[in-house]
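Format notes (please read before filing issues)

Several people have asked whether sequences and structure tokens are stored in separate files. They are not. Every record keeps both together, in the order shown below: the sequence lines, then the token lines. Line labels are part of the format and must not be stripped during preprocessing.
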Amino acid sequence: MTAGSLQQRRAGIGRQLAFLGWFICTSLLLCVGCVSAFADDIVVIGNLQLDVSSFNDQTIGDLYLGRIVQLATGQRVEVVDLPRTHPARDAFYAQVLGRDPAQMRAFWAKHIFTGKGYPPPELSDEASVVHWVAQAPGRIGYVHASALVDGVQVLLRRELK
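Then the structure lines:
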């Protein structure tokens, strides 16, 4: 092997290592971006004792609109809301119920006036919602996926749009 071919071989290996480094860095950045996007999803969470198979968009919508208070299994369910100013609230109602804030205010104003029901109670932040849900069977709330901790289960996940 001549000195020239050895030099060419080293240069080729250097280019391969540079490409490999670029590829690994790019892959890591893409993975971090995917995890970050996934963490911003809206998730409906429930106490660990709830049967996750009992839930779909319709059931969750009916619970949050006060149309039902128990599941087909007979288990009583309590729901909780975030404050009107919380960004997860608008996202939840848009993504899960297909309603905007004005529609929700009108819905509850009518129900309160006619005596048909009251909106769910509000908790101040996502950490409070997660804690409240974890404390007793039959409790449901919603948060950004990034607020999830052990002690609750995901009943439904919706991507923020």
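For reference, the curators noted about this record: The chain has two domains: 1-39, 41-158. Residues 3-39 form the longest helix (37 residues).
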